[in-house]
């Protein structure tokens, strides 16, 4: 059976009620992948990480600086190809101490960007598909899709974000929150094709929460500016500057809590009916409108059933 036809068949069998989506027929018998044992982050020293190298002409990269960084260090495959959920779970834990729950949902979303998602893998460059779960307008370091390049690092855009950081060497939660909101208002004013609904709202907070947690302290939301710049500008782990992986595992719950703090710090109006937090982040990664629960990305929703992520909706 061809992939699109099979996806349509699986989607037709699913229950679209919200929040009672855990009874989804495509997912109900599928157990989520969990690692057989704890995967610990590497000690942040030059000898513990593979050497950093920029991508070659045959390597592929994504609009996500975090995944690109892991590939540049060969923690995730350096060529950027053939990423599976078990592989992603291992390398995200080793690189950033990211939990298996987040890796499962992100991996499912990545697989959904594959033109043939039944391969249950993806290449990093597939993640640039506009509004296909992960990529969205008002990125912190990439231009909107309407410009024709939502893929490459954009120093002009990044400079506007970086300008919000103070002179004390720390990117604070409040500064990062205001910079994130600035990107939304800027693109809303100039991009006639600007796309920013509940899904993009959640993703934009999720990405800011993730870089603050990975480069700094998930509890305070503060991160050394030097570390943040290394991540975005060079896509390199800043262990030579003193960075170490966070001691606390970065779970979906951690990111959901930090997203709430970020929104409170910048005062951005929340879409009517949306509850910011872990559940809405899970729903968006599964191709669901986090307000209505309706499927807005059928591939992501069905893949979530195939990987077991859908059965985890509502857990934290």
- Please identify, by name, the CATH architecture: Orthogonal Bundle
What is the global morphology? globular
Order of helices and strands: HHHHHEHHEHHHH
- What's the CATH C level? Mainly Alpha
Radius of gyration: 18 Å
* Overall number of strands: 2
Provide the β-strand percentage band. under 5%
Strand order within the widest beta sheet:
1-2
Q: What is the residue-mean pLDDT, rounded to a whole number?
A: 88
Helix content: 40-55%
CATH homologous superfamily designation: Chloroperoxidase-like
Distance between the termini: 35 Å
Give the oligomer, counting copies of the same chain as homo and different chains as hetero: single chain
């Amino acid at each position: 059976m061809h992939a699109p036809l099979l996806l349509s068949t699986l989607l037709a069998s699913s229950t679209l009620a919200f929040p009672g989506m855990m009874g989804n027929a495509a997912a109900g018998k599928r157990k989520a992948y969990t690692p057989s044992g704890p995967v610990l982050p590497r000690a942040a020293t030059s000898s513990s990480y593979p050497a950093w190298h920029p991508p070659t002409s045959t390597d592929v990269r994504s609009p996500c600086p975090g995944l690109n960084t892991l590939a540049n260090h060969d923690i995730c495959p350096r060529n950027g190809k053939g990423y599976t959920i078990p592989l992603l779970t291992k390398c995200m834990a080793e690189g950033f101490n990211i939990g298996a729950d987040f890796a499962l949902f992100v991996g499912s979303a990545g697989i959904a960007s594959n033109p043939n998602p039944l391969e249950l893998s993806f290449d990093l460059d597939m993640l640039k598909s506009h509004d296909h779960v992960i990529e969205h307008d008002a990125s912190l370091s990439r231009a909107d899709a309407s410009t024709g390049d939502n893929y490459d690092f954009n120093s002009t855009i990044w400079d506007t974000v970086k300008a919000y950081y103070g002179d004390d060497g720390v990117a604070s939660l409040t500064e990062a929150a205001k910079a994130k909101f600035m990107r939304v208002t800027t693109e809303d004013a100039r991009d006639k094709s600007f796309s920013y609904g509940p899904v993009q709202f959640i993703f934009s907070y999720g990405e800011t929460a993730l870089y603050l947690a990975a480069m700094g302290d998930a509890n305070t939301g503060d991160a050394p500016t030097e570390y943040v710049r290394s991540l975005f500008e060079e896509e390199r782990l800043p262990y030579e500057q003193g960075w170490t992986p966070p001691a606390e595992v970065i779970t979906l719950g951690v990111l959901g809590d930090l997203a709430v703090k970020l929104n409170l710090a910048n005062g951005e109006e929340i879409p009517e009916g949306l509850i910011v937090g872990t559940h809405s982040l899970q729903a968006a990664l599964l191709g669901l409108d986090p307000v209505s629960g309706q499927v807005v990305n059928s591939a992501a929703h069905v893949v979530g059933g195939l990987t077991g992520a859908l059965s985890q909706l509502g857990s934290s």
